[in-house]
Prior knowledge:
Order of helices and strands of chain A: EEEHEHEHHEEEHEHEHHHEEEHEEH
Strand content of chain A: 25-35%
Largest sheet of chain A: 9 strands, mixed
Distance between the termini of chain A: 56 Å
Number of helices of chain A: 11
Largest interface: A-B, 67 and 68 residues
Radius of gyration of chain A: 22 Å
Shape of chain A: globular
Structural class of chain A: alpha+beta
Low-confidence stretches of chain A: none
Oligomer: homodimer
Mean pLDDT of chain A: 92
Helix content of chain A: 25-40%
Amino acid sequence: MSYSVEPAQGGVTAPGGFRSASLHSGIKAKTGALDLAVLAADTVGTAAGLFTTNLAKAAPVLVSQRHLAKSGGRARAVVVNSGCANACTGDDGMANALRMTTETAQAIGCAPEEVLVASTGVIGVGLKMDRVVPGIRGAAAALARDKGAEMARAIMTTDPFPKDHAVVVRTSRGHFHVGGTAKGSGMIEPNMATMLGFLTTDAAVPPALLQRALQESARRTFNAITVDGECSTNDCVFALASGANGVTVDEELYPALQAAFYEVSKALAIGIVRGGEGATKLVSITVTGAREWAHAERAARTIANSLLVKTAIHGGDPNWGRLVAAAGRSGVPFDLSSAAVHIGGIVLFENGQPHDANAERAAAHLSGKEIDIELDLGTGGAERATIWTCDLSAEYVRINADYRT
Amino acid sequence: MSYSVEPAQGGVTAPGGFRSASLHSGIKAKTGALDLAVLAADTVGTAAGLFTTNLAKAAPVLVSQRHLAKSGGRARAVVVNSGCANACTGDDGMANALRMTTETAQAIGCAPEEVLVASTGVIGVGLKMDRVVPGIRGAAAALARDKGAEMARAIMTTDPFPKDHAVVVRTSRGHFHVGGTAKGSGMIEPNMATMLGFLTTDAAVPPALLQRALQESARRTFNAITVDGECSTNDCVFALASGANGVTVDEELYPALQAAFYEVSKALAIGIVRGGEGATKLVSITVTGAREWAHAERAARTIANSLLVKTAIHGGDPNWGRLVAAAGRSGVPFDLSSAAVHIGGIVLFENGQPHDANAERAAAHLSGKEIDIELDLGTGGAERATIWTCDLSAEYVRINADYRT
């Protein structure tokens, strides 16, 4: 089956059969700041989810996991708030997360287990339900096709800009859309999930295929980014399929769905990194020459999380020694005498020898906004992996030293 | 056997039978900056070493490992330079590290394999041997008992202050001294070694006991600190025993030697953290309630390396949610409903519930220079581990973004 995946207008409501609404409920102190959103399908569709592997799971994560299991992969809506993570909030937090789903279900007319819930913001603070409940009712009453962009803003915390993306997939059996939005700026090193992410499609997709498409695309997108090596208590990404445009995804169409999920997820994931707390540069770390993919991935992740690498990139310093040192401590096979480092395609270290004459050209590449780094482990394998990260600036420290105060 | 361990004057030459000398050889650009030191025993004694586990080992690490193996745990001297790590320098680097030992051996009159070598500084830059060789000859000619403090300064790179320590051990079979010096400020998360560390004793100690004492004390000191989660290419810590004062350590005296090594190593290790790049606070992270020591250690290390924890401490924010989130992602058993967090002995989270009324008192503790954090994993075990770390400041970013430029 041949297919094409092309960019489309809009975000999470680009696919047919979805509406959303966002408003300022009062969770965030700043007047008018969007802090609550409802995304709803016109009828109950299928759903899939990936969740944080952190053992300190927030209440909304636990509730959404249960609802997906109970509904057998079917959902009508997602309700999400920013400004409060509802994490480490004990029994009250569980009751509040559950109530967010029952209020949403009542307002739009479905079963509570057909509603998924997500929260993001400060850990350890309870939700102000006297603001959340009227907010849910107000949003449910205002659902519209053209409000996808507002949802991208309503889920932001320290994000410097909203992130959404959509594509249209054309196949000989018809076309369908995939759209999505995501947030995340700090505490970003998802592990089998991301910060909050929401994907939609107007194809009809059986739950198992939807889950598979979400997982496979997340492995190389949401799970291949790191801002600060932190895995949150609240990470989750949901996919909802409305089936509104009549195309049903089966095994034959699955590659097209998978490709579209990958495109949308990659755009959102890179957006998260580009908008990382204090970030001034988007950095792609590719590790090659590995005998196993997991080796390449682990080395790339170690480099991407190295404070010395991230500060050197921030300073525009082609300090390849820090790249080699990070690879060497990553716990995977590494052969210094055959290893190589390229920055912006320029060789700086190869076969055990520095190429310092190239440092100036590499520094010029590092002065840009999009940085490419490639490290060969020197172990002679053909496996490779890419992790996207950002530089570490004094602004990151300022943001996180002052976050609550 | 009862014994006492008491503080003593001096550092690496406090134990009898050792002399040292330090000078400016010209490796560092700054006029007069000490950059080369020789530490020598009056006669050949025993020696032990711990080395970085980084696979990108620097030339001096490889040479010292071979020399210790070849000499069967005997050494006469250590030669060390700062300002250049001699790492990732290929065959020339190996030849230069070896030459540092042969020049030292010739100058003081011993076999090359009885000399250990260490380097610290920038990775990927070759040693200027036309400056190093005269430097070694000059230092070897100037060895003196009273120059231990100079060596503590000669091994510094970005360290804000020198670190040395000494103790006297009194036993019914006589007394002996243990002294030491260490350097390290960034790229600090040793793994079975530290940045550079040098311990001396005037007891006679068989090589196997010396190695055991070094390893056991390093596990809870040099290997229990982290500044930035980076494990260097050059980490090593050496112990030399001169036997100058006639006491021989055997199994009966071993606990006294071990206690003294622990005291000196702990003082040096904490000094490294206190002088961490950009550090403004010394932070002790203790994890309790673990069923295995390794669980407590891993959770404590994860918390100690968490950028969000380190920036919160820098900002004086009692953000216990970040501590819980770090423990939850550390990969060890963790039970949120029974976990607890104390900052400065003040409970902030317990049995799944925040104690926010205590936040102000905890913030007052965080405004100090020495911070105590305790997290109970909630799994009901009796094991505990402590990791020392520092806060993360904008100054760390400034230092490392500008290190070479």
